[in-house]
């Protein structure tokens, strides 16, 4: 099998206005020019146009942080996949734990949003991950399996190729508490096994599985050295050019 090209994607969450977004990308561009992995930045909707323009001439791909499941209609405050596509968006994060925790996102809505994104020609970064209570209750694997099965319901093998899975333990997001490389590697391995069971070994081997949760310039190399970890989804550290560049440099 061809070696999987890691994807390091920044998730800016609700940070940076358009002027600040342009400035940070300007700072990142020279630092990322020799990247040997794929790089994306998932920015707030209102930054997409400016970020896309600032990325011109670089290999950074434009990403968004969510999209709605309908093509258009009476969904006040929502953004459709086609709207993102027209702005040059390549990747969209679906099912981030903050959406699941604070905005009522369920496995069913995650599935619907993922399908809409794929139909519009976007690539999906699908997030899964257990809470601390679930891990401590011994439910980690069951939770991951339930989230995977729910999110991938009705998604074909061909569509799966346009997806990246991000394993993000909720207890490690924005907490400064990183999963150990062994813990992260174990769950990414479980995710790959799930994919092999449902889509076959070849499809599973080709899939990129990221780790996310307080990944930073210091811990990235060890996490990325795990055989089933193919990149990272980076929150806090993607807001600082040198930190993000160091993580990108660690992903070979
Ligand atoms: C995230 O929100 O996807 C994330 C991994 O955040 P942080 O790196 O800040 O933990």
TrEMBL record:
Substrate binds at residues 11-13, 174, 214, 235-236. It is found in: Cytoplasm. The active site is at 96 (electrophile), 168 (proton acceptor). Gene3D superfamilies: Aldolase class I (3.20.20.70). Keywords: Cytoplasm, Gluconeogenesis, Glycolysis, Isomerase. The keyword 4Fe-4S does not apply. Its EC number is 5.3.1.1. One of its GO terms (molecular function) is triose-phosphate isomerase activity. Its main location: cytoplasm. It catalyses: D-glyceraldehyde 3-phosphate = dihydroxyacetone phosphate. It comes from the Bacteria. SUPFAM superfamilies: Triosephosphate isomerase (TIM). It is an enzyme of class 5 (isomerase). Pathway: Carbohydrate degradation; glycolysis; D-glyceraldehyde 3-phosphate from glycerone phosphate: step 1/1; Carbohydrate biosynthesis; gluconeogenesis. InterPro entries: Aldolase_TIM, TIM_sf, TrioseP_Isoase_bac/euk, Triosephosphate_isomerase, Triosephosphate_isomerase_AS. HAMAP family: TIM_B. Homodimer. Involved in the gluconeogenesis. Catalyzes stereospecifically the conversion of dihydroxyacetone phosphate (DHAP) to D-glyceraldehyde-3-phosphate (G3P). Belongs to the triosephosphate isomerase family. This is Triosephosphate isomerase. The gene is tpiA.
